[in-house]
Amino acid sequence: MGLTIAQKIIKNHLIAGEMTAGSEVSLRIDQTLTQDATGTMAYLQFEAMDIPRVKTELSVSYIDHNTLQSGFENADDHKYLQTVAYTHGVYFSRPGNGICHQLHLERFGVPGKTLIGSDSHTPTCGGIGMLAMGAGGLDVAVAMGGGAYNIPMPKMVRINLRGKLSKGVSAKDIILEVLRLMTVKGGVGKIVEYSGEALSTLTVPERATITNMGAELGATTSIFPSDDVTRAFLAAQGREDVWTPLCSDEDAVYDEEYSIDLSALRPLAACPHSPDAVKSVAEIGALKIDQVCIGSCTNSSYLDLMKVAAILKGKTVHPNVSLVIAPGSKQVLSMLAQNGALADMVNAGARIIECACGPCIGMGQSPKSEGVSLRTFNRNFEGRSGTQSAKVYLVSPETAAASALAGVFTEADPAIIPDIAMPEHFYINDNLIVAPAPDGTDAEIVRGPNIKPFPLNVPLTENLSYKAVLKVGDNITTDHIMPAGSKLLPYRSNVPYMANFCFTRCDEQFPERAKQWGGGFIIGGSNYGQGSSREHAALAPLQLGIRAVIAKSFARIHKANLINSGIIPLTFANEEDYDRISLGDSLELSGILSSVKDNDSCTMTNSTTGDVIKLELSLSERERAVLTHGGLINMIKAMNK
How far apart are CA 37 and CA 50, in angstroms? Predict the structure, then answer.
């Protein structure tokens, strides 16, 4: 039986485990990346391991999230990140150089290699045939130290692409169609592989848009073959030497298969407040809009923005619309400036903001109250934009630009969209990437006053008795658990402060109640913890004394982050039992230590109602050991004694 692309890479990097779907596999990691919103904690954790130098082939620290410097906090963290990277063998991408995923695709990604990053959209590099996965910061720190990355062996999904996109229809519409088909839960525990006759028509930036938003499926990652299109892109980046061909075997077996006719697609949009709430632009109609934001790691490539410039050229943005554009990298911005496309956008009334995540992560450009905002981003969760009442739609760059001119939702006129060819040579200037110090160099690591120690759990005891300190519904995102935005992101290195805002989008009283009750259990619905890889969504609850989360189901990365923090992830054996628990009920997990060590199930007693509820423990042997020690850091310390 043949192998899929992902299975081939996994086989070549397998350290331990069997490649049987659902069983845990341990993988050797070639490359890591971090960004500044999650990186500070990752490097603090790396330092705690007392390893002098990273052991990966390549590790890169990017500054792209916390670039708004309204106080000393972000600048201090940037200095820490630069000095800790220089000391420990990590390349450092300075502020203004661009978004981590766009940059890694341009300058560092290698087909057939493994990459994990402390950002859920790390699968962007699947567009060039990498096995690229989002992970919690601690998992990235362990990989930098030479440790394995552990995941449940995913199932394999193939999406066959046929036909050719019509003008005005883009790669964003392809992934929105996939989300419509599979939903935000449809990719959990799976790797999505793209194949078919249409691949030759899709450039690497288009492929990267698709793999980027595979994160919204809940997928472990998404991947394209490494073919002649990949080779041409890497050659244009001056990196053809790293190219290697990679495709699935003809007799590879997939667990699921889908087929999409690209020629039948029309412009689509994800409606508020979920990436899978997909409708056609025609179906939405001429809805009045207030704001358009173009950029993010999903749609900020040179090809994307050249199409935007062509649509805007010689026209003026509607007077009732604010248009902001953020190029994905310094390379993109420089090329737009050199060929005049930047002037076309500026003259049309676009506001050009720096090469960074910006509005996507809630860093500025929040819409007005009840505002309708069209964004080329990857997430439209309620409140993520910084305005709780805003209605955010996810669209392609073509739809965004055309709508900015019209003042209402509209499709782009195909007649004015030129054929944009992939450059034979990209402009290359890596002067904002700082190489690490030579091995053995004694360098100073600078720490600002905002950097606080991260919380540590305690070893698990036999019995846990706490109240249900919070009850939430389905599809709770990490944005619900630990909000981002310009007011909170500067405190990513200060978990005690951030914990005061934990879950406040769901229940403003939660942090204070958790403190008063001495911690407790959280009750959740399906797909608990979807969205970002931010491990602060586990660290902040840990800071508040949360010992277990009982949910209908978990998103992969968040479940791993909970385990790394020593918080037990339990699922209901019968989902109906979710309704038998209310806020404030007293809950008892008797014999939980023994259950975590040896069993796949346990019981919880609701002392308030007298109900006995059966729960399930879906854990690997390694995860059982982590929870027993009260978290991964505790286990590493115990092993090194």
Answer: 22
Cβ of 16: how many Cβ atoms within 10 Å?
11
pLDDT above 80 (res 341): yes
For residue 220, the 8-state DSSP code is S
Please provide residue 567's backbone torsions phi and psi, each rounded to the nearest 5 degrees: -95, 125
Report how far residue 573's alpha carbon sits from residue 552's, in angstroms, rounded to the nearest whole number.
8
- Under a CB-based contact definition with an 8 Å cutoff, are residues 520 and 547 in contact? yes
Residue 208 CA to residue 222 CA, distance in Å, equals: 9
Q: What is the mean pLDDT of residues 363-369?
A: 91
pLDDT for residue 111 is more than 80: yes
The total of other beta-carbon atoms located within 10 Å of residue 377's CB is 29
Separation between Cα atoms, residue 343 and residue 328, nearest integer Å = 17
**CB of 394 closer than 8 Å to CB of 269:** yes
The pLDDT of residue 321 is 98
> In Å, how far are 333, 346, 374, 523, 582 from 325, measured between CA atoms?
11, 10, 12, 40, 46
The DSSP result for 287-353, as a single string, is -B-SEEEE-TTTS-SHHHHHHHHHHHTT----TT-EEEE--SBHHHHHHHHHHTHHHHHHHTTPEE-
CB atoms < 10 A from the CB of 48, how many?
16
Cα–Cα dist 390/410, whole Å: 19
Distance CA 564, CA 492 (A): 18
| For range 273-279, the mean pLDDT | 96
Decide: 29 and 280 in contact? Cβ < 8 Å: no
Owner of token pair 């929870």: 627
Task: Give the model confidence (pLDDT) of 67-83 as tens digits.
Answer: 888 889 899 999 999 99
**H or E segment to which residue 116 belongs:** strand 114-117
Q: Which of 291, 265, 232 is CA-nearest to residue 111?
A: 232
Distance CA 125, CA 127 (A): 5
Bridge-partner residues for 527, per DSSP? Answer: none
DSSP per residue over 544-582, as a string? Answer: TTEEEEEES-B-HHHHHHHHHTT-EEEEESSGGGGGG--
pLDDT at res. 25: 98
- pLDDT per residue as tens digits for the range 204-259: 999 999 999 999 999 999 999 999 999 999 999 999 999 999 999 999 999 999 99
Report the distance separating Cα 384 and Cα 359, nearest Å: 9
Would you state the structure tokens that stand for residue 553, as one six-digit string? 């189901």
